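Below is a filled-in request sheet from our internal design queue. Each sheet records the structural input a requester submitted and the sequence that came back. We keep these sheets so that new team members can see what a complete request looks like end to end.

REQUESTER: design group, bay 2
PRIORITY: normal
MODE: inverse folding
CHAIN LENGTH: 322
BACKBONE (tokenized):
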């Protein structure tokens, strides 16, 4: 176990730009035996071989670890997740270039190590294809899970450019494999020009709930989240956030398949916290961030860091209430 705070102990915090790079400056280990006693493990899954457009999300785990912020209580929620939870950085899954199947197996194995240690995994991608190994690992332990999915796109294509395994087919494969309970699967933020009627017909057949960006705009994020939480209900649930659900104005150049007309950072941050506070999360991931700058000068990595913090804050709120 390496504690980046070691040399800054007298200050109780360290500058984000100094010391070993870990999420939020928490201790880091690659040893699964060292996970016991922790509540949450942040895991990097730096792969982007399976995108349909611009790559670069493999650089996100490091960029999000670097786009950190000072410790302290969440000013709205009134809880300091880093004090309330024992959080560890479990490093990156042992991925290699250009071997997507092998990489998915490595990610599933690493997430499984955290789950078997009784630790909640929060995985930083990577492209959205990583949700397949993430959810498979969770379902192997808990059975079919509910899914709350923030995204511009449904990612329920059968094939994308002839590929059955892609960041555009991941949710289809998970439903077909019985890893997601489609009646407890809610999509939020859909907009744009994909997919088409065949995919939506398949979704309707399986009882998947789609909440579009126009629902967020017209009903408001609070009402949309109330419905999402009600549909998913109690029981094991996974939260997946594709950063492209945000309007590109908030993350200029910071994701590979952007679509104008999306959510604000304020809406998504609140929704991420609410999801973690109100659902029985067994895992979560954040995907499709493409870094564009250094540390906090990178708007997509910065909001990525804050999304993970909101999830942690929600988990802390839920555990303090129970
Ligand atoms: Mn996606």
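RETURNED SEQUENCE:
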């Amino acid at each position: 176990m390496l504690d980046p705070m070691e040399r800054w102990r007298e200050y109780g915090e360290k500058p984000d730009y100094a010391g070993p790079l870990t999420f939020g400056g928490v201790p880091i280990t690659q040893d699964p035996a060292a996970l016991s006693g922790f509540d949450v493990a942040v895991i990097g899954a730096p792969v982007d071989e399976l995108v349909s457009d611009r790559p670069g999300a493999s650089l996100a785990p490091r960029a999000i670890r670097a786009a950190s912020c000072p410790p302290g209580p969440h000013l709205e929620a009134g809880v300091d997740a880093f004090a309330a939870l024992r959080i560890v950085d479990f490093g990156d899954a042992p991925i290699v270039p250009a071997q997507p199947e092998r990489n998915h197996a490595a990610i599933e194995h690493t997430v499984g190590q955290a789950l078997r240690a009784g630790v909640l995994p929060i995985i930083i991608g990577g492209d959205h294809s990583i949700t397949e190994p993430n959810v498979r690992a969770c379902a192997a332990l808990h059975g079919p899970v509910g899914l709350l999915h923030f995204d511009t796109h449904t990612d329920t294509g059968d094939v994308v450019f002839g590929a059955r395994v892609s960041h555009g087919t991941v949710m289809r494969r998970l439903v077909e494999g019985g890893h997601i309970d489609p009646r407890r699967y809610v999509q939020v933020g859909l907009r744009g020009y994909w997919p088409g009627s065949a995919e939506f017909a398949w979704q309707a057949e399986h009882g998947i709930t789609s909440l579009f960006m126009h629902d967020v705009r017209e009903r408001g994020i609070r009402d949309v989240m109330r419905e999402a939480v009600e549909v998913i209900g109690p029981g094991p649930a996974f939260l997946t956030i594709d950063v492209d659900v945000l309007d590109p104005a908030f993350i200029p150049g910071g994701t590979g398949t952007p679509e104008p007309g999306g959510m604000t950072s304020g809406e998504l941050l609140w929704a991420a916290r609410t999801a973690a506070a109100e659902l029985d999360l067994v895992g979560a991931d954040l995907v499709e961030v493409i870094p564009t700058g250094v540390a906090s000068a990178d708007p997509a990595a910065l909001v990525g860091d804050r999304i993970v913090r909101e999830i942690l804050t929600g988990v802390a709120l839920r555990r303090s209430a129970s």
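SHEET NOTES:
- The chain is about 35% helix and 15% strand.
- The pocket of manganese (II) ion is lined by residues 128, 151, 153, 155, 167, 242, 288 (CB under 6 Å).
FILED BY: M.R.
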